[in-house]
Amino acid sequence: MAKKQLNVGLIGYGFMGRTHSNAYRNVNAFFDPEYQPVLKTVCGLVEGEAKAFADNWGYESHCTDWRQVIDDKNIDMVDICVPNNVHSEIALAAAAAGKAILCEKPLALNVAQAEEMAKAVEDAGVANMVSFNYRRVPAVTLAKRLIEEGRLGKIFHYRGQFLQDWTISSNVPQGGMATWRLDVKAAGSGVIGDLLAHSIDTAMWHNGPITKVNALTETFIKERMHAETGKVEPVGIDDACTFFCRFGNGSLGNFESTRYARGHKALFTFEINGENASIAWDLHDLHRLSWFDHNDEGKLRGWRSIHVSDHGGEQPYMENWWVPGLQIGYAESFVHQIADFLEGMAKGELAAPTFRDAVETQKVCDAVLESGKTGQWVDVG
Ligand code: SOE
After folding, report:
1. Which atom belonging to ligand 1 lies closest to the Cα atom of 166?
2. Closest CA to 203 of 138, 251, 163, 240
3. How many angstroms separate the alpha carbon of residue 195 from the centre of ligand 1?
4. What pLDDT does 381 receive?
């Protein structure tokens, strides 16, 4: 069947622009959505860099003003891969222009912005999704299915970590390409919005809403040179955050994130303990899902390590890749994301996490930030 062309305008050509471009290029080779993304235009701040990106990834054109992408009647879908402080303005304009929207995480700088964005896409009736890509690592998706099947029984604990070490040097600037993540004006928060947002999205997807939080935050390096002003300026982001929480189902949560865990580059982990079984996962070994089932025969009982790469339809996404036992990786979680987004569009359904789902994550992020400042328990939302 002839594919429907979906013209994509990508805004932002950094790390995320690359992961999304790679996904658009590969999705139809491995999945069979009704739509064929066409890389129409890429927009970024520096003309030469936008052109180089367009040439490298096969975009037909490039520009430096995102409004040009919105005004272009040929563009069907806007993909927002810019710093967090620009998400809202672009998304509101794209919704008003009737474009489908994929937005990088976290959705917004705060709940008020996120709510406005969710309302805008709902009023416009456009397809929308937020790029919490780790949901679509096959082992993480399988964990969701096992929980939904009720195999864990009552859940008692959810434990999550996202640890990095790239900002330990005081020479790392704030502001600029990639390091905008250290500039509170561009990022809104530090590890809370950048890393814990992933943990929170995954946790609420697995285990339901978080109702209250108590957080401890720290900014270890108080001043950094700002790449744009050239001046040493106070650092306004959280470098590290630990928080406890309660989930609506009565379970307890315990989360930690930092960019000061020497030796850890992107150690995203979770462990869930239920009455009958436990599940654990670790991004550094992303194919493996650890599973302990108390219902196993006594003499064989122990942690299993499931290599989530089998065919037969029971292990998510893997059927579409190589032969059983062979791996895929980080990049493919974005291919799955686009495949599901396109399938949702074809069916006239929204693929999760939608802007509305991301508002719930934003509420937890805001509550964690507030609790970190006040030292008090904060009710979510
Ligand atoms: C930051 O280093 C970062 O790139 C995040 O922005 C991503 O969301 C995360 O997946 C990996 O780390």
Report:
1. 2
2. 251
3. 6
4. 85
pLDDT at 313: 80
Sign of CA dihedral 145, 146, 149, 154: negative
Is 50 in contact with 42 (CB distance < 8 Å)?
Answer: yes
Query: In the block, which residue shows the tokens 């640890």?
Result: 163
Torsion of CA 83, 87, 90, 91, to 10 degrees: 150
At 345, which amino acid appears? M
- In the prediction, which pLDDT does 312 show? 86
Q: Decide if 116 contacts 52 (C-beta within 8 A).
A: no
- C-alpha count within 13 angstroms, C-beta hemisphere, residue 376: 5
| Calpha distance 6→75 (Å, rounded) | 8
55-103 residue pLDDT tens = 999 999 999 999 999 999 999 999 999 999 999 999 999 999 999 999 9
How far is residue 313 from each of residues 80, 149, 271, 310, 321, measured CA to CA in Å? 32, 16, 25, 8, 12
For the chain, which residues score pLDDT lower than 70?
A: none
Q: Where are the beta strands (DSSP E) in 77-199?
A: 77-80, 100-104, 128-131, 155-163
What domains are there in the chain, each with its CATH number? Answer: 4-132 (3.40.50.720), 135-328+360-379 (3.30.360.10)
Q: CA–CA separation, 40 vs 19, rounded Å?
A: 16
The overall pTM is greater than 0.85: yes
Which tokens belong to 243?
A: 């928080």
Three-state SS at 131: strand
Name the residue of 15, 105, 172, 194 whose CB sits within 8 Å of the most ligand 1 atoms, as the mutation to test its pocket. 194
Position of tokens 């879908």? Answer: 77
Question: In sequence order, what are the residues at sequence separation of 6 or more whose Cβ sits closer than 8 angstroms to the Cβ of residue 376?
Answer: 214
Q: Which residues line ligand 1 (CB under 6 A)?
A: 164, 194, 198, 266
- Please give the distance, rounded to the nearest whole angstrom, from the Cα atom of residue 238 to the centre of ligand 1: 15
Instruction: Quote the ligand 1 centre to 62 CA distance (angstroms).
Output: 25
Give how far the C-alpha of residue 267 lies from the chain's centroid of Cα atoms, to the nearest Å.
Answer: 15
The two structure tokens encoding residue 325: 């036992």
